[in-house]
Amino acid sequence: MSSQIICVAQQKGGAGKTTLVSNLAIAYLAEGKRVGLLDTDPQGSLGKWLDIREEALGEDDNLRFATATAYGISRALRGVGDVADVILVDTPPKADSDIRQVLREADLVLIPVSASQADVWATHDVLDLADRVGTPTHIVMNRTRTGTRVGEDVAKSVAGLEAKPLQATLANRVVYAEALGRGLGVMEAKRSAAATDEVRALAKEVSGLLGL
Ligand SMILES: Nc1ncnc2c1ncn2[C@@H]1O[C@H](COP(=O)(O)OP(=O)(O)O)[C@@H](O)[C@H]1O
Ligand SMILES: [Mg+2]
Known about the structure:
Rossmann fold, 7 strands, binds adenosine-5'-diphosphate, binds magnesium ion
């Protein structure tokens, strides 16, 4: 299996895991890459997003999907890996032994932190687990609000973490929620050039880290 595996993990719910996975998937698809999606979250938001997408747009041979529980992760990754250049793994809001295996198999772990200190506090367990299995990890600042006190405070706390934040950040924009509900990436929702630019920049920075 030669695909690169990106795991998006964060113990806190609502931080932007599914948003990151769905938008990176669409960005890589648009570049002509074959994308595998693996949903390990029993809430199934990513699968729901894909259902809505396929109802509207039909199936795409370059976008494969599987679900898996902790014990089925290696097998599911192998299954999707044969037909994908990059695999994006969505995870539940947990940091326990269930996600250890997927962190171990990943080439890169992304941890979204939305503009709240609670998100920063919630990074520690995933950082610790990823460190133990030796997988490189980066923070992705999500829902940023420039010029706010909370934004500055969160950025300061993130700077003190052992994982570096990526340069690319995603701002707080309604189009992210709209696109998710419509089975789209923000690049396709065509309502916000700014959101498109920031997702492209994120995808490019992540590709650079993986040599994709
Ligand atoms: N940058 C953003 N701007 C606006 N809304 C966002 C942003 N990122 C995520 N959201 C919204 O916040 C909610 C939670 O995001 P989601 O990706 O589902 O988090 P998680 O998968 O970590 O639980 C969703 O409704 C999503 O559309
Ligand atoms: Mg989710």
